[in-house]
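Troubleshooting log. The previous structure file for this entry was overwritten by mistake, so regenerating from the original sequence record. Sequence copied from the archived sheet and checked twice against the printout by T.R.
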Amino acid sequence: MAPVQMKHGACRIDTPSGQVMSKKQDIVRPFAGWTIAEAPRSLLELSMLAMSYPVLTSAPRGDGHPVMVLPGFATNDQMTAILRQFLSRLGYAVHAWDLGWNLDQHTTGENGEHIARRIREIRDKSGSKVSLVGWSLGGVIAREAARRDPADVRQVITLGSPFTGDPSATNLNTLYELLTGNRVADMRHHRRYADGHAVLPVPSSAVYSRSDGITAWQNCVSETDAQTENIEVISSHFGFVTNPAVFHLVAHRLAQAEGEWQPFDYGGPFAACYRKPAEQDRR
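Regenerated output below.
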């Protein structure tokens, strides 16, 4: 596997799959049409989830290890209830994050101490490392937690999470600034975004959609190595927590035995909803 090459001055990263992460100045907010379509698309994905239930029952079964699901910005555990219920039925010990509304540092702590304590509580009670599944800002927080306390984390799966790139390339800037008190313009050089692309010390899968109507997809991809991957799926931003193809993907990632991580298999019943790296490179 070819090594990751990074040109620090240009913020250009060539991944082993041949994908090229964009320069910050090339990253723009999602097309307005995708944003307007978020509500109807997410409702369609929810209906597709109901129709796909018989297929999803064949998803890989879990081994019972603990999984915590982190909600997106300005949402709470209610938004991840369907995904958590699905994972529970597969046999995982699923946990909500139990921290209320996700308002970034106001919820997790200035240094992430509240989320760190929550993860440690789950690990101490179960005796096993915790897998983190984070949607949107929840995934950003999950990656930061894995960097800080890798001994407590089994793997990280992010769903449409803008953990790198240009923090202004989102359609929720005004609301984010209002509810968190953070200025997006001041975060361009924040460690979260400057170092966010770097691989984690634990296995990770960054799931993203080029038709995301909330955040630029380029903000949601990582460097890759032997235990790190980016997976493109056709989904709306809010659909990440209702889309059956995403559910199947998450089940596939979580089902791997600890220490035996392998890249995602793009086949299966929802193959048409994923884009293989070779297909991405031809665009």
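Residues 1-20 have pLDDT under 50 and may be disordered. Archived copy saved in two places this time.
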